[in-house]
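Hi,

I'm pasting everything inline rather than attaching a file, because the server keeps stripping attachments. The sequence lines come first, and each chain or strand is labelled.
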Amino acid sequence: MEFPLAVVIGALYAAGVYMMLRRTLVKLLIGLVLLSNAANLLIFTGAGLTRGRSPVIPAVASAVTPPVADPLPQALILTAIVIGFAVTAFALVLGYRVYKTLGMVDLDELQENGAHDDSAPKPEAQAAAVTSRGQP
Amino acid sequence: MNLWLVMPLLIPLLTAILALLAYRSIEAQRWLNVCGAAALLATTLGLFMNVWYEGIQSAQIGNWPTPYGITLVADLFSAIMVMLTGVIGFAVALYSLASLDTARERFGYHPLYHFLLMGVCGAFLTGDLFNLYVWFEVMLTASFVLLALGGERGQMEGAIKYVALNLVSTVIFLTALGLLYGLAGTLNMADLAQKLAAVDDPPMRGVVTTLAMLFLIAFGIKAAVFPLFFWLPASYHTPPVAITAVFSGLLTKVGAYALIRLFTLIFVQDVGYTHSLILLLAGLTMVTGVLGAVAQYEFRRLLSFHIVSQIGYLLMGLGLYSPLALAGAVFFTFHVSVAKTALFLVSGVAERLAGTFDLKKLGGLYRSQPGLALLFLLPALSLAGLPPLSGFFAKLSLVQAGLALEQYAIVAVALGVSVLTLFSMMKIWTEAFWKPPPLPPPDLGPGSTVFRQGELGVWLLPIGFLVAVTVALGLGAGPLFALAMRAGEELMDPTGYIQAVLGEAG
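And the predicted assembly:
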């Protein structure tokens, strides 16, 4: 079972990196999602797969009888999935804000660093920009 | 369980929650922010004294026995870093009262700030690699929002770069974690140190070194190490100065902390390879950072490039890998965070006075604000390493350690970069403070750049506090360096750390 999963993980990493190297903002975000899922699967597989043996100590015994599935990687992935979910949600909203503010989704059109310093909006304009985000 | 270990996490959490509950009242949130930051500073001092007098402290969360539960552990290095968080957190909280616009305050700056501090403290205190990942995420998520808060054009462009690269680094970190768990079956750092030290099969040692490289890349991105630093100068100058200042003081240092922790505790199998590579990266980081700074004429971007350059010095201490070098790195971390944060705060005052961060348009600040000029000059000279300020002693110990190990190349680079640092600090000095104000004089907009009665004091007070810390670090260098030396020795010999975590069994 490890081998097909390894292939899947490799494909996910490759696809994620490929997507991140594209110019479109949306593809960058999709790439991030693919990469984080690939990492989760990797933790799952890397710790070894044991099917159908839950690590629960039977009532009559004082220890589990090996082989049992390792519960820790599953706990780790659960945490990582939740965090990844939240971060992805934030990244999507940020992507949308970038699109709304800059009016484009092409990453190559991002200005060189600091190009905006001269045309930086006045404090009043900044305040207006912040308030225009609407009520949370 | 030692309460001192938990307090630096609980206090920011509680403050953030209370600030969220007081979401409608900015006034209440401001009070909470400052009181919370002051309480954090007090507890971090308490934790530091505790560790100083009683040695390495550890606590098992939920009372799970090691290595199964989450461990919090504070050795001297951790305690110093947490104390640094307290100092910077307090100063910037105070500074943000006057400098931040109401719109940002209304949209959750205060709670986010404390979530950020909690993440930073957690990363410094945890003794478990997966837990470190979680704290990193807490810190990063808070920093993402702080960076993007306000939604200006520049901020959006900076934020997308910052978020994308940091998320990549997180994925690499997670990948390395998964593989390491598959290899060792544990993620408790002390336990890992023992398990990996027991690996003597040459192919497996190669795997361990490969994993070490994955971690080096993951934390290298976060610490802004050459050639992975590009996100930093592209994003750090975009948010308001208070936020930039706390980022510059703390965030990259968390990456550097993780590198130092991992490469002194866990990945010490192949020092000849890994630490030489780190030393090489250190040299390149210093040089590229400072050369980037030399070309800049924007106050905050110039300082951002210097953050990169100074990360090189921290890595130099790690790469040299001797007690003196690590002590130098510890001392340097504290010194540079304080000095750099102070400089960023000064840049904010300059912007408020003259309406621009462009050095070519600034000028005459020495004449109009001699006090501010002094507050700039002390940390700037300290950063360049002039005696008797703190930077001198930090760099001196690094150079001495380099000479003792006969690593002359890195010593030469470190000294050369110091000169260039001095050059670029002097550039700021002559451009912003010394030269007459450019013509036409900066347009003082209708009431927007004039300080209200007593307001300047609120701006200058936190800078004064940080500058006082810098000066004290320089004047009290003897005893303080002895302290750093103790931290360096603890790092070089992790048996104490392992015993404190694993107890008698370890």
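Chain A touches chain B through 52 residues (CB under 8 Å).

If the labels don't parse on your end, tell me and I'll reformat.
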